[in-house]
Amino acid sequence: KDCQMIKKKQGVGLTSADLSVVFASETQRKKAENKTMAKRANPNLMTYSEFLNVLMVLAPKVYPKEDPDTVFQKLLLENILPLAAHRIIHKVSIADEEGVEELLTVTFKRGLEDLFDYYSDVADRRRKLLAAQEVQDTVKLKGGHGQVQVTSKQRAKELRDAKGLIGYSEFMNFCQDFKLI
Fold first, then answer.
1. Are 22 and 54 in contact (CB under 8 A)?
2. CB 153: neighbour CB atoms within 10 A?
3. pTM of the model
4. What angle do CA 170, 94, 115 make, to 5 degrees?
């Protein structure tokens, strides 16, 4: 099922493997460019700007027969923004002279940030649940007696540092929710 291909309007599709490669490429590229990021607790998490970079990379793969200058706008207008349930609809034509930067910084900035924030909140909740489960497992290992530290300082720092970032599982959820796979 992971590598099952879904047909797109253009007759081609993306697989989970394609998405995995794009996700890994972006996180690895950022680690190579930025030594601070390489030292981050979990450098395999994406920021909002990395998320937008990945969408720009995916756009020509979703619409390979379209004009490369308009595929990103088309991906936003046809695949992503119409499926964002709480978005206020704005009529925008791909033929408009707006550049990609204006689309990202003005027209759709709030909607795209809200989408990213939703998935980063999901990621934060998942990480907190995992940390809580680790504590439960530690309590069980110690027989449920005595004091057990809720979470280590290192683990708490990792949770703080990862706040507002999405991981691979949230990225894949996004791709499934917005029918990119």
1. yes
2. 8
3. 0.66
4. 20
CA 160-165-171 angle, to 5 degrees, is 145
pLDDT, tens digit, for every residue of 61-101? 888 889 888 888 888 888 887 766 554 555 555 445 456 67
With beta carbons less than 8 A apart as the criterion, state whether 42 and 169 touch.
Answer: no
Which tens digit of pLDDT belongs to each residue from 109-154? Answer: 888 888 899 999 999 999 988 888 887 777 777 766 555 555 677 7
Give the separation between CA 172 and CA 165, rounded to whole angstroms: 14
Angle at 11 between CA 8 and CA 16, to 5 degrees: 50
- Scanning the structure block, which residue is given the tokens 């504590």? 135
Give bridge partners of residue 166 from the DSSP assignment.
Answer: 46
Name residue 170's amino acid: E
